[in-house]
Task: inverse folding
């Protein structure tokens, strides 16, 4: 009997190791490093993890699910990142916060931001362990102020959401930190998992939404065409896996109908949007 238990334990251990093993990471640095601003949408399956690089400075926005953490860390190292100016957790769901604890453990950082300092949702443990790890390293998890502007190398990053930290529905998604990145003439909007409620609040706020590139909110789920008409992007990036494909079909069709070029991590793997200050170049992180 005990032999069977032992074999079962060994199999479970191997399965655990396999799930957490980092995926292979390939980045064509020769192609991308010549751009003063690079935005890497790291392929973490279902979830978000976005790395901003500008003139030796780095910011990570979300870290994917817990078992993607090593992939994110390997991606950062392959880009030559040893230190992060800031870590942003857009909201407390595990497909955004899950991988961040491992990042905090292995990369020194200056600041960490999240819309809450303690989570109370289904997968709250992952967020709370990330928050505890931030505190253990002597940092305070900060709630960004609306309208605040951060400098990252040559890029400016403005906080344009959330307008409401206690929204009435889909609360965690609708209090996602939303950031608008600008460099020279180029702009990009990062929306976390914001849905209709947050979209409407941002449109009413009078914040400048118009951006050349948008990361579609909530992996394309419960999105609102009117918001994307206000953003009027040329390019839209979906950070997603096949599991959300059916639920994002409507917005995909609507954005295509608006003539927007669509990119999906589920098809392309990790995607890079790189700016020279005049225009964006988009491609797979390595061909
Ligand atoms: Zn999500």
Result:
């Amino acid at each position: 009997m005990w032999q069977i238990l032992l074999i079962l334990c060994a199999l479970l251990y191997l399965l655990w190791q396999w799930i957490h093993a980092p995926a292979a990471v390939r980045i064509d640095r020769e192609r991308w490093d010549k751009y003063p601003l690079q935005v890497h949408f790291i392929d973490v399956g279902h979830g978000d993890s976005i790395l901003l690089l500008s003139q030796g400075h780095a910011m990570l926005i979300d870290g994917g699910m817990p078992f993607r953490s090593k992939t994110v860390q390997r991606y950062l190292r392959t880009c030559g990142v040893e230190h992060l100016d800031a870590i942003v957790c857009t909201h407390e769901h595990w497909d955004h916060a899950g991988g961040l604890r491992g990042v905090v453990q292995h990369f020194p950082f200056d600041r960490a931001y999240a819309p809450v300092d303690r989570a109370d949702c289904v997968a709250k443990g992952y967020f709370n362990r990330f928050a505890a790890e931030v505190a253990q390293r002597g940092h305070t998890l900060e709630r960004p102020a609306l309208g605040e502007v951060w400098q990252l190398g040559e890029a400016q990053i403005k906080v344009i959401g959330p307008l409401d930290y206690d929204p009435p529905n889909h609360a965690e998604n609708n209090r996602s930190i939303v950031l608008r990145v600008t460099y020279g003439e180029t702009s990009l909007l990062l929306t976390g998992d914001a849905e209709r409620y947050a979209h409407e609040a941002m449109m009413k706020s009078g914040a400048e939404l118009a951006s050349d590139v948008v990361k579609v909110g909530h992996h394309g789920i419960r999105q609102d065409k009117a918001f994307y008409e206000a953003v009027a992007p040329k390019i839209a990036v979906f950070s997603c896996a096949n599991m959300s494909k059916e639920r994002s079909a409507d917005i995909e069709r609507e954005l295509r109908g608006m003539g927007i070029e669509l990119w999906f991590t589920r098809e392309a793997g990790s995607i890079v949007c790189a700016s020279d200050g005049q225009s964006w170049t988009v491609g797979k992180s390595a061909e």
The mean pLDDT is 93. The domain at 2-284 is CATH 3.60.15.10 (Metallo-beta-lactamase; Chain A). The radius of gyration is 19 Å.
